[in-house]
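Two proteins follow. First one:
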Amino acid sequence: MATKTISIDLEAYERLRAARRTPNESFSQVIMRAHWRNESATAAALLDALAELPTVSADVLERLDEAQRADAPPADQWRPGPASTPRSSST
């Protein structure tokens, strides 16, 4: 039987070791016993997952809209706080 050497982190090693049914069960046997998900992500699965989420109330949406309307960039992008007046250059 051909083999392949791999590196795994210590947490993965401990999980494999703990999953053995007997002390002499090989890691290959543990891995072959594993059940891997064969489901692929689909738009239908996404819609089903979204349907399970709670809806946002109208009050929360209104507060978010209000906060977005109140948000504005500073008058002077180089200085924080209230708008500053331009400096006059004297030469």
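Second one, unrelated to the first:
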Amino acid sequence: YIGILRENLEVSLTKLGLENNFILEQDNDPKHTAKKTKKFFNSNHIPIIP
């Protein structure tokens, strides 16, 4: 999941003109709530709706 985000999130946000104006929404799937994923969001300043 983190690999997908690294590869696609920035590109998608740029195409949509949302580089600095977005909040990522996700469900409670284990890959979305894993400690490693939460650390990735925090270290990359990615705002999320839990």
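SUMMARY FIELD: The chain has a mean pLDDT of 94. Residues 1-44 form one domain.
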